[in-house]
Amino acid sequence: SGTCFRQQYFYKISAVDLYFNEGPKTTVQSATTAKPLITSATYNATTKVLTVTGTNFLAFAGALNDIDVPKLKIRGEGGLERAISTSGKAEITDATTFSVTLAGSDQSAINSFINKNGSSSTGSTVYNLTATNGWAAGEDASINTEQTTIAITVSDVPVPTITYAEYNGQTGSLLVVGTNFYRLNGSNNDIVASKFTFTGEGGNTHTLQVTPNVEILGDKTFILALGSADKAAISQILNRNGTSAVDNTTFNLAAAEDWNAGAEASVNIADLTGNPVTVSNYVNVVLPIELVNFSHKKTNSDVVLNWSTSAEVNNKEFRLSRSIDGKDFTVIGAVNGTGNSSSLQNYSFTDKKPLIGQSYYKLTQVDLDNVIKLEKIIPVSFYINSDEVVIYPNPATDVVSIKSNSSRYTKATLLDVSGKILGTYTLLTDVTDIDVAKLPKGVYLLNLSSNSENTVRKIVKN
User: Fold this and answer.
1) How many helices (H) and strands (E) does the chain have?
2) What letter would DSSP give residue 243?
3) Strand, helix or coil at 321?
4) Taking a C-beta distance cutoff of 8 angstroms, is the pair 414, 246 a contact?
5) Residues 286, 232: Cα–Cα separation, whole Å
6) How buried is 347 (Cβ within 10 angstroms: 0-12 exposed, 13-18 middle, 19+ buried)?
7) Which of 112, 182, 372, 453 has CB 3.0 to 4.6 Å from 219, enough for a Cys bridge?
8) Residue 448: which of 381, 380, 400, 395 has the closest Cα?
9) What residues of the chain score a pLDDT lower than 50?
10) Euclidean distance between CA atoms 166 and 333, whole angstroms
11) Please, are residues 315 and 287 in contact by the beta-carbon 8 Å criterion?
């Protein structure tokens, strides 16, 4: 209870109703108020409307002043927060509802970290609305109305879309403009550079291979800084200033599925056509070699990498690198280049300890002044010959034996299907026996490993 000095309105507020009786009042009136409380919120990411529900919302004399909107804050992906500061104030709809349509920089900032439908973001951050004290403008100033944990349910999150791109041939800077770009918790991971393919002269294409991933610059732009090898390759197909090649092929930037890592993984966001590229400051980067091919051949225990060049200028060497994820590469060898040549040159390198499963090999060309001018990546799937390691008997009752015909693996780890380690064993040069007599009947996993690779086999205990 309290007192009311409003000259234009007499009002009474209870926990269950809200009503007004207009008319001049010059005497002090009593008022019974109940604390306003927000219970939940929804946000439509397409219309940008935040709808808040609760109890005992108060009307305040005047227009657009019931809710002090800048005292509301939305949290999304990675814990990023934004006070709603550029969308103005709001009127309540009734004692249980009010809505705010995001505008200005609020819209752009919040749009980038509200990236998935539901109650949490792509990176599993729970969406939350915070209301600091005084958000209900009509409330008695002595009442603390602060709330810190209010769930938000998000709907209609739009798909990220590219509108156009601008490429500076001299700097290798690619500005990409579009709508609804989303953040992913972490650094330099919002945009996956290897998902982008350029089309230019003659319909030829180049997919970025050595350009680093980047963060978005708000929900509408990002900038990729092309690696030197990508820059050189692009100059051959985006071969003049403007929006088309010398042969009038329209420049295009295609974005393959998952190019925006902040977007929901289950939604197809591939944007392959209709993304024009405008080139400025075109520079023809002359490649020191002309690579004819880069391929691989598998044997029982090795991966043989083969490549050829049709011309070389000041070519010092080729470096071979290997990666398990196609991003972080480790150099595994080098082969000297011919230097200068105008005839076909064939090269080969053998990886004697290839990774089991899917991996990636990168060929890097280095010229005489130690500048990297060309890089090419190929995927390789490698699995060992089943005769190299023999596990018997399988199913087993008392003992499982591991017969190794090579030194590829040095350790065996026995696990149950939940991943619990039951034993670790050093592999002998001939046969290693593992006692399984006391194990319950069922399926188990045997992980064979060394410092650089591993493979898993299934065994059955009878």
Assistant:
1) 2, 32
2) S
3) strand
4) no
5) 7
6) middle
7) 112
8) 400
9) 1-32
10) 37
11) no
Contact 328, 334 (CB under 8 A): no
Q: Which amino acid is residue 395, in one-letter code?
A: P
Q: Which amino acid is at 135?
A: W
Tokens representing 117? Answer: 């439908």
Say if CB 92 and CB 67 are below 8 A apart: yes
Amino acid at position 178, single letter: G
pLDDT at residue 93, rounded to an integer: 94
Phi-psi region of 95 (alpha: psi -120 to 50; beta: other; left: phi over 0): alpha
81 forms bridges with which residues in the sheet?
A: 75
| 185, two tokens | 């918790």
> Which residue bears the tokens 């709508």?
179
pLDDT at 385: 58
With H, G, I as helix, E, B as strand and everything else as coil, classify residue 181: coil
Return the structure tokens found at 404: 């190794």
Q: Which two tokens stand for residue 39?
A: 């219970």
Q: Rounded to 5 degrees, what are φ and ψ at 445?
A: -115, 140
Which stretch of DSSP H or E encloses residue 234? helix 228-237
CB 254, CB 271: distance < 8 Å: yes
The pTM assigned to this predicted structure is 0.61
